[in-house]
Automatic annotation (TrEMBL):
<keyword id="KW-0378">Hydrolase</keyword>
<dbReference type="GO" id="GO:0009117">
    <property type="term" value="P:nucleotide metabolic process"/>
</dbReference>
<keyword id="KW-0546">Nucleotide metabolism</keyword>
<dbReference type="InterPro" id="IPR003697">
    <property type="entry name" value="Maf-like"/>
</dbReference>
<feature type="active site" description="Proton acceptor">
    <location>
        <position position="76"/>
    </location>
</feature>
<comment type="similarity">
    <text>Belongs to the Maf family. YhdE subfamily.</text>
</comment>
<protein>
    <recommendedName>
        <fullName>dTTP/UTP pyrophosphatase</fullName>
        <ecNumber>3.6.1.9</ecNumber>
    </recommendedName>
</protein>
<dbReference type="Pfam" id="PF02545">
    <property type="entry name" value="Maf"/>
</dbReference>
<feature type="site" description="Important for substrate specificity">
    <location>
        <position position="159"/>
    </location>
</feature>
<dbReference type="GO" id="GO:0047429">
    <property type="term" value="F:nucleoside triphosphate diphosphatase activity"/>
</dbReference>
<feature type="site" description="Important for substrate specificity">
    <location>
        <position position="77"/>
    </location>
</feature>
<dbReference type="GO" id="GO:0005737">
    <property type="term" value="C:cytoplasm"/>
</dbReference>
<dbReference type="InterPro" id="IPR029001">
    <property type="entry name" value="ITPase-like_fam"/>
</dbReference>
<feature type="site" description="Important for substrate specificity">
    <location>
        <position position="14"/>
    </location>
</feature>
<comment type="function">
    <text>Nucleoside triphosphate pyrophosphatase that hydrolyzes dTTP and UTP. May have a dual role in cell division arrest and in preventing the incorporation of modified nucleotides into cellular nucleic acids.</text>
</comment>
<keyword id="KW-0963">Cytoplasm</keyword>
Length: 200
């Protein structure tokens, strides 16, 4: 097996898929953290703090397990409506309420990236604006029943059936899905991993 280039501190199947899509060779590290927002924490502060926390936790696991020292990448995705953080739904009622809130209007999706290396940590933020069509109660109920919302910030996945609901997107499709690919390449390039350079 060819040498890996970094560790991905994430349990998200979407992040694994997206990172593989751009040709990065990596292994996943499991480093769960407490994702509870602090009191009065802004959405931007929250999402940046979580990327940092996840990358740092991954770095500690790498050290504890005696793994070969390599950069650790992590990310966090949060849906933001009127400055309010919409995380993953806790149950079907919660998912229904979030989709009712998102229906017929625009919201922001913040995805942060954190890269921990031997020299420290760098974080960056990708912001996208997503517009939902007006959803009927029956459409919301059918989507919630499908189970798709349950492990996703804001209770939807742009890459699944909810793609039908999105009338406009400004920003990064991969960012909304959990890992902004262009920004990831930019961040990795600053730390000697030139994905774009390899194509030129
Ligand atoms: C808005 C949106 C979110 N999501 C997903 C991406 C993330 O996996 C999830 C947000 O939760 P996160 O806490 O960002 O990530 P995670 O808990 O799934 O994985 P980890 O912390 O281990 O990296 O929502 C989609 O898949 N599609 C979407 O359109």
């Amino acid at each position: 097996m060819p040498n890996i280039q970094l560790y991905l501190a994430s349990g998200s199947p979407r992040r694994k898929e997206l990172l593989a899509q751009i040709g990065v060779l990596f292994e996943r590290i499991s480093a769960p953290i407490d994702e509870t927002p602090l009191i009065n924490e802004s959405a931007k502060d929250y999402v940046l703090r979580l990327a940092e926390l996840k990358a740092e936790a991954g770095w500690q696991v790498m050290l504890e397990q005696g793994l070969a020292p390599l950069p650790v990448l992590a990310a966090d995705t949060t849906v933001v409506l009127d400055g309010q953080i919409l995380g993953k739904p806790i149950d079907v009622m919660d998912a229904t309420a979030m989709l009712e809130q998102l229906s017929g209007r625009s919201h922001e999706v913040f995805t942060s990236l954190g890269l921990r290396t031997a020299t420290g940590i760098e974080v960056l933020l990708s912001v996208s604006t997503v517009t939902f069509m007006a959803l009927s109660p029956a459409q919301i109920a059918a989507y919630v029943t499908s189970g798709e919302p349950m492990d996703k910030a804001g209770s939807y996945g742009i890459q699944g059936t909810a793609g039908l609901f999105i009338s406009n997107l400004q920003g990064s499709y991969s960012g909304v899905m959990g890992l902004p690919l262009h920004d990831t390449a930019t961040l990795l390039a600053r730390h000697g991993l030139g994905l774009l350079a390899a194509l030129s």
